[in-house]
Design goal:
By secondary structure, the protein is mostly beta strands. It contains one helix and 13 strands; from the N terminus they run H-E-E-E-E-E-E-E-E-E-E-E-E-E. It binds fe (ii) ion (FE2). The site of fe (ii) ion has 5 residues, from strand 9.
């Protein structure tokens, strides 16, 4: 997994410089956020990293393909392998497969938007999926594109939502735009776009930092 120390530091938060001494690294923990109403009602089966294709189907999920790479880390920067990572997201038109979703946008027969992964050696995880679409929130606004994560390691459980950079909707999102007021740093939940490695696939990186584990 090719995330440099610089990426970890600049992408996540914190470096505490101690004058005249070695630099002590302390990463800001990824903020907790509500699970939201669309947590999968069925426990996802262990999933291939590629959410754009479903077993038994020849088609591919509609939408912009993205690849997301990152690591699960402790605040001291050490990696957490074997963390349980549950992921759920809307399809490209903003619809979840959860049956309580009232969004009239159509389901995509080639996309469930649910995955269960475990971090590998070095804490690495990787998914290939489609960029989720925005969708209406109950207060009359529009949720910015985001992917839900629940990460478990030891007895620590993190629920959070990851957003995309340079999205106009981020500033209006009912959760994202209120994070600072809720003492959560929104910069820690925005992934970083990195250089593409294949045509028509956007690449992002996002590390998940657990406060305890
Ligand atoms: Fe959501």
């Amino acid at each position: 997994m090719g995330i440099s120390r610089r990426t970890v530091v600049t992408g996540l938060a914190g470096i505490i410089a101690v004058p005249g001494a070695a630099v002590a690294e302390s990463l800001a923990p990824t903020p907790q956020e509500t699970l939201g109403p669309y947590f999968p009602v069925r426990t996802p089966a262990e999933h291939n990293f590629d959410l754009t294709r479903l077993p038994g189907r020849t088609g591919r999920a509609a939408g912009q393909i993205i690849e997301l790479n990152g690591r699960v880390l402790r605040v001291d920067g050490s990696p957490i392998p074997k963390a349980k990572i549950e992921i759920w997201q809307a399809n490209a038109l903003g619809r979840y497969t959860n049956p309580i979703d009232r969004n009239p946008a159509p389901l995509d027969p080639n996309f469930k938007g649910v995955a269960l992964l475990h971090s590998a050696a070095g804490g690495a995880y990787r998914i290939r999926t489609i960029k989720p679409g925005p969708y209406p929130d109950p207060a009359g606004g529009t949720r910015a594109p985001h992917i839900h994560f629940q990460v478990a390691a030891g007895d620590y459980l993190l629920a959070t939502q990851m957003y995309f950079p340079a999205e106009a909707l981020n500033d209006k999102d009912i959760l994202m735009s209120t994070m600072s007021g809720r003492h959560r740093d929104p910069t820690n939940v925005i992934c970083k776009q990195v250089e593409a490695s294949e045509p028509d696939v956007l690449r992002f990186e996002w590390d998940i930092v657990l406060l305890q584990a």
